[in-house]
Amino acid sequence: MQSPDAAESDSAARVIPSARSQAPWRVASVSPLPDKSLVVRFVDGTTGRVDLADFLVSRAVDGTLFEALRDDVYFARAHVIDGVVRWPNGADIAPDAMYETVRELRSTARIADGDGQTPTHDTTPAATATESADPR
Length: 136
Description:
Number of strands: 7
Structural class: alpha+beta
Order of helices and strands: HHEEEHHEEEHEH
Mean pLDDT: 78
Radius of gyration: 19 Å
CATH topology: NE0471 N-terminal domain-like
Largest sheet: 4 strands, mixed
Number of domains: 1
């Protein structure tokens, strides 16, 4: 067995890369809102609003982990673990689906604004829950 001093001097520990993925669709932060939506910021800086209200009232949620999210207090317990939005009961939202939906809606909003440039007014996209949620 290696002595603690030998382990500290082992340079291999300093060259092992972080296990954290730098995929652009990894979630960096989440802010749950009272209207059952999430404001998410991804590691590449993309930010958007994901609306889960319609999904959570649908019958598809009955009897699943997502049913607990109907409760406002429980919904507000959303947090990020390893780049994924999760709740304490294990419910999570597919970050890649949220990312693509937010980017597509941002692109659509820019085109609708006219010149393809970033709009000057608020066009925060709302992703639909059926496109964003992955109720594995």
